[in-house]
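[Discussion] Sanity-checking designs against the backbone

I'm trying to build intuition for which residues belong where. Below is a structure token string of 276 positions. I'd appreciate it if someone posts a full sequence so I can compare it with mine line by line.
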């Protein structure tokens, strides 16, 4: 049995430069990862199976169409690529909210690839894993690598950068699912420039922005309430929406300030954690 973490992803900054001919958008983003998230367990089996447990399991029940979850798609792509005939029983313990801008589905797919690679003695840096990841989604390569990076292109071109390991972090989601496609469709199309190339990671993040935030606010105005609550907390170093929303995050001076802020939040989903 292989157990693999699927940590939440946050975008410390997310700059949208232009729409590409392939339908994706050219991005610059600072990816960072948390100490907590979902968990994927893979066990050799006589027949393939996939089960979802955890607080957000109900939100991932198989649709009537029978469409595969991204975890299942990742597993099938792995077996096809590496000519694996072994069946697998896969369990996803789902603790991250759905369609929330913190890479839950992408992180789960990446964790599945890592778990299967460990089970079948495939090197974690095998480039074929990253080819699969890129086909699965724009955030999956970053989640597969699982470390702080500057992402360019559609997010798949990754340059490792010095992270902020141990920094106290609070994630807050108001319980609203936001469609990534709908948010990108509302982006105003203005290129406001790239992410600063100089300075430490926190300085670069603070100098940056999330270009999708206005579009997400138009679709889910409650995000403004979340941001106001985080920005008004004591000890906040940076508060911003992650990805296409609706989850927002705040970095804190210390864990005590983070925990006090979490206790003061309304009845929203929160996760008190740290950056890795």
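Best answer:
Here's mine. Compare freely.
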């Amino acid at each position: 049995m292989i157990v693999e973490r699927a940590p939440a992803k946050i975008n410390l900054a997310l700059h949208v430069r232009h729409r590409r001919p392939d339908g994706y958008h050219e991005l610059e983003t600072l990816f960072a990862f948390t100490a907590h998230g979902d968990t994927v367990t893979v066990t050799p089996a006589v027949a393939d199976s996939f089960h979802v447990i955890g607080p957000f399991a109900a939100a991932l029940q198989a649709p009537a169409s029978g469409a595969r979850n991204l975890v299942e798609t990742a597993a099938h792509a792995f077996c096809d690529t590496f000519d694996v005939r072994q069946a697998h029983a896969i369990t996803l313990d789902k603790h991250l909210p759905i369609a929330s801008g913190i890479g839950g589905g992408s992180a789960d797919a990446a964790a599945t690839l890592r778990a299967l690679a460990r089970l079948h003695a495939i090197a974690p840096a095998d480039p074929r894993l990253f080819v699969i990841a890129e086909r699965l989604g724009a955030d999956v390569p970053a989640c597969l690598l699982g470390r702080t990076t500057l992402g360019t292109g559609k997010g798949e071109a990754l340059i490792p950068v010095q992270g902020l390991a141990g920094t106290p972090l609070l994630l807050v989601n108001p319980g609203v699912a936001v469609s990534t496609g709908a948010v990108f469709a509302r982006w105003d199309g203005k290129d406001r420039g790239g992410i600063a190339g100089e300075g430490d990671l926190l300085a670069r993040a603070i100098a940056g922005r999330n270009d999708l935030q206005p579009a997400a606010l138009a679709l889910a105005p409650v995000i403004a309430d979340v941001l106001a609550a985080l920005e008004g907390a004591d000890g906040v170093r940076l508060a911003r929406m992650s990805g296409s929303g609706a989850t927002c995050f705040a970095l804190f001076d210390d864990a005590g300030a983070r925990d006090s802020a979490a206790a003061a939040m309304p009845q929203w989903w929160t996760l008190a954690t740290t950056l890795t």
